[in-house]
Amino acid sequence: MHFNITSDSADYTKKIGNFLSKVVSTGDIIIFSGELGGGKTTFISGIAEGLGIRENIASPSFTIINLYNVSGRNKLVHIDFYRLESSKEMFDIGLEDYIYDNTSIICIEWGGKFKKYLFKDFLEITLNYVIENKGMEEPTKRLIGFESSNSYWDKKLEKFKRVSGIK
Ligand SMILES: Nc1ncnc2c1ncn2[C@@H]1O[C@H](COP(=O)(O)OP(=O)(O)OP(=O)(O)O)[C@@H](O)[C@H]1O
Ligand SMILES: [Mg+2]
Fold this sequence. Notes:
This protein is of the alpha/beta class. The chain has helices at residues 10-21, 40-50, 88-92, 95-100, 151-164; strands at residues 2-7, 29-34, 65-69, 75-80, 104-109, 123-129, 142-147. It has one domain (2-164): 3-Layer(aba) Sandwich (Rossmann fold). It has a 7-stranded mixed β-sheet with strand order 1-7-6-2-5-4-3.
């Protein structure tokens, strides 16, 4: 399944992330692709907010991986592949353990880089700038693409459309 949503502001992108959080489960992997500064971290901070996380969501570009407690034993695992140079490094950061520990919701910025080596089906979200007029202002419009390739994620996206009211 593939569809796009247009966002006009960082707040709206966060809100979409918040709606998506209502359909995610432990063991899920969501990868984020698209341009530098497209809004990947912003979207994930909306997911975190929807999961009840109160902490500020920092970019993991340098730390590579940030963990946030959700509730009980569960956690949000926020990863950034930007600085990784090989798929081997995915194993070094313990990605496989998080995938199978049944307590992790995994969001990976620049996840497209090594997507053929991921061990499990994932949802792919792509955020790109929409440039309307070449003015001096920072563009705030983004095209957010959702791409699923199995019935597990198709069902979740249908539910996401229902809860968010997005057509
Ligand atoms: N519609 C929008 N959606 C998301 N962010 C927006 C939007 N409009 C403006 N912004 C701004 O764009 C920036 C997006 O930064 P963010 O760190 O979320 O991007 P990123 O894709 O994670 O970047 P990087 O590629 O460096 O990891 C923020 O400063 C945010 O406020
Ligand atoms: Mg980021």
